[in-house]
Amino acid sequence: MNILKHILPISQQLSKCLATVNTQQVFATLQRHAAPSVRAISTTAPRHDLMQFFDDKKNWGEQEVKHGRGWTKDDLRIKSNSDLHQLWFVLLKERNMLLTMEHECKEKMELFPSPERLDKVKESMENLEEVVRERNRAYYELETGETGERPGKVVPNELGIRFYYRAFEHVIPKYANRKWNERHKFTFGGSAVWKFLRLYRERLYNEKRKLRNRERNEVVHLLRRFPNIDRETLAQRFPTVDVEKLYKLDKIRMNQSVKSGSSSSST
């Protein structure tokens, strides 16, 4: 109560003084008495407001928008950390703008021009993150001898499916953390789980087998239709298919001989 008796008269006098002085004088006084290294008030003038979420108006209604390629890792490795930091926010604004334009075009049932821009921005952001991780790993390995990244390992879940688990820091030890032990089960068992794993692996095997068969049939079709096709390029396009072995098949060679015979008779 004694403190209030001292503060109340001072506050009343201060209110009377402020009532006689306008806002501009108070602001000028604050600026004069403020520390030189601290700014009293910082404001920025609005220029584009919410229009930064939209593309340039000259691109509205266009079928195609001219754009460049994405940022590669080699391009980003020669940039400084401050440049990468600025570029990240530029890409982030570009991604937000493209997502807004894509949503707006869907709402109006219009064609979104050059949708590959989103893929290039996503690829650029992924490359930027990878370059930053490379620098962090190099720094920590030089200073501490470790990568500095969060440790992790491949563990199975309750259904026996293996996944990569990243470790987290906890205040409570693992053996005493009841909630963590209830949520994270890295063991599995039981006849139902083993049956599920058998059917799941069978499904994965069938998908891989069907994919190999589709690629093999496609290579056979290309060899029949284009006998002089570059086999090295074909092998790079379909790495799971033995192109040389298919090229030696009788049905492909017979098809080539028939085509060569028909071409000679026509001449």
TrEMBL record:
It is found in: Mitochondrion. Belongs to the universal ribosomal protein uL29 family. GO terms for cellular component: mitochondrial large ribosomal subunit. Coiled coil: none annotated. InterPro entries: MRP-L47_sf (IPR038340), Ribosomal_uL29_mit (IPR010729). This is Large ribosomal subunit protein uL29m. GO terms for biological process: mitochondrial translation. One of its GO terms (molecular function) is structural constituent of ribosome. Keywords: Mitochondrion, Ribonucleoprotein, Ribosomal protein. It comes from Anopheles arabiensis (Mosquito). The keyword Ribonucleoprotein applies. It comes from the Eukaryota. Its main location: mitochondrion.
